[in-house]
Design a protein that fits this description.
single chain; alpha/beta; FAD/NAD(P)-binding domain; D-Amino Acid Oxidase, Chain A, domain 2; 2 domains; nine-stranded mixed sheet; 13 helices; 22 strands; 33% helix; binds flavin-adenine dinucleotide
């Protein structure tokens, strides 16, 4: 069966994946006059876009810096409840990705990625605020900043080069003395010697509300929703791109956008495009009765986890677990996060936690892929946002719209995010 999306002035775009990136891209494409169809196996799924930590992390402009072969990484791996875990079954598939991550130790490569990420981040609020206003969710953005807190002087000192580089890249931050920290966040245990405040950081009320509102809005504006899992992409004899599922259903359109999060690399591979992407799984526990314990997001520097005060409760999240995106969650990881919540929020109510695990789509250079397929210019990619997909959803959508319209200069502006980097 071949389904055609009905015609419109600009043409038809099929978007594979309806997380925040796919849905925001659908919204932008509709505004530009494209007819949109979204394909997703489950529009209400527990996708990363809906249950993440809710941070608008605009100071997250530095790529992952840890070599997978360093003593630090090995130490984390040896700790069964440390911030890093690898399921050995995932290793063979991960190896090229890990080798590319190790190459990020090269200073020039690292700085180039940091500059590209900082440039992309620089328009986050310009893109996000109008989108939230248009969704009727303007009040869902809290620009209260984020505190990075340090238990040890060494932890603070070790991070100073990174904070200096962030400042060079335009991120504003200031040191907060321990007594000011205690006044700002009285619900936090008094164990932190140092803290850094990034004032521009924001937190949303609930990422799920944004995904749901985007879904409602694009449906109302005419997007068609098809429930199905793309098993591969193809180019038909007329040169039109399409997706097929495992049952042989096929959908074609004038343009195709792959926004399938951590599942996107297989789809790109089916067209012959090489991508280095991995599922970096993260865990959260949400404590519905404990939101009031925090006034803004807090990042716990040494233990690599975060806590955010969200509508659904105090959400504590973290862990970088490299495993198949759909493999079952490890309950010990949730227990470890709960223990951290109890340790650092002495009055937290941990009796009724809501547990979640999801997959960050992570590239080795921490840059998303935003650009055309190297095999066919009618296929666009928009995935690989790692830790900052909520932050960059609206920005990525604007760039996808520019690429759909073949806007002059768009591909050049986005060169750092092209697939080309995986082929050189
Ligand atoms: C613990 C944790 C905390 C996080 N905290 C933050 C944060 O504070 N701030 C931030 O900015 N980011 C955060 N992130 C990252 C953020 O959640 C992701 O980067 C973002 O959700 C990625 O969005 P996406 O739309 O690309 O993918 P997803 O949300 O994963 O959506 C992908 C969609 O594609 C669909 N799909 C998959 N395969 C197929 C297929 N074959 N065919 C059709 N559809 C398919 C899926 O069903 C899904 O709906 C966090 C992530 C985790 C795990």
């Amino acid at each position: 069966m071949v389904s055609e999306v009905s015609t419109s002035a600009r043409g038809h775009v099929l978007i594979v994946g309806a997380g925040v990136v796919g849905l925001a891209s659908a919204r932008d494409a509709l505004a530009r006059g494209w007819q949109v169809t979204l394909l997703d196996p489950d529009f209400e799924s527990a996708r990363a876009s809906s249950f993440n930590a809710g941070g608008i992390g605009i100071s997250e402009v530095l790529p992952l810096a840890v070599s997978p072969f360093s003593l630090k990484a090995i130490g984390w791996l040896l700790d069964p409840l440390g911030p890093l875990a690898v399921r050995w079954t995932a290793l063979p598939r991960m190896l090229p990705w890990a080798l590319a991550l190790a190459r990020m130790q090269d200073r020039d490569r690292y700085l180039a990625a940091a500059r590209a990420l900082a440039a992309l981040m620089s328009t986050v609020y310009d893109d996000l605020v109008p989108m939230l206003q248009d969704l009727g969710l303007a009040g869902h953005l809290h620009r209260d900043g984020a505190l990075t807190v340090f238990e040890t002087e060494k932890g603070f000192r070790d991070e100073q080069p990174e904070w200096a580089l962030r400042r060079e890249l335009g991120v504003a931050w200031r040191e907060v003395p321990a007594d000011e920290l205690a006044a700002m966040e009285p619900g936090l245990a008094r164990v932190f010697h140092r803290a850094i405040m990034a004032d521009d950081w924001g937190t949303v009320e609930d990422p799920r509300s944004i995904v749901q509102a985007l879904g409602r809005q694009v449906r109302e504006r005419g997007a068609r929703f098809i429930q199905g899992r793309a098993a591969g992409l193809f180019i038909d004899p007329q040169g039109r791109p399409g997706a097929r599922d495992a049952d042989g259903r096929r959908w074609t359109a004038d343009r195709l956008v792959v926004a399938a999060g951590a599942w996107s690399d297989r789809l790109a591979a089916s067209l012959g495009d090489r991508v280095l992407l991995t599922a970096e799984r993260g865990y959260t526990v949400t404590l519905p009765q404990s939101r009031a314990l925090l006034n803004r997001e807090v990042i716990f520097a040494e233990r690599k986890f975060v806590a955010s005060p969200l509508g659904p409760g105090l959400r504590v999240g973290g862990t970088a677990e490299f495993a198949a995106a759909d493999a079952p969650a490890n309950p010990a990881r949730h227990r470890a996060l709960l223990r951290l919540a109890q340790k650092f929020f002495p009055s937290a109510q941990v009796d009724d936690p809501v547990l979640w695990m999801g997959a960050r789509p992570t590239t080795p250079d921490s840059l998303p892929v935003i650009g055309a397929s190297l095999r066919n210019p009618r296929v666009l990619y928009a995935f690989g946002h790692g830790h900052v997909g909520l932050t960059l959803g609206a920005t990525t959508a604007r760039h996808v719209g520019r690429l759909l319209d073949d806007e002059a200069g768009a591909a050049g502006d986005l060169a750092a995010f092209s697939l080309q980097r995986f082929s050189t």
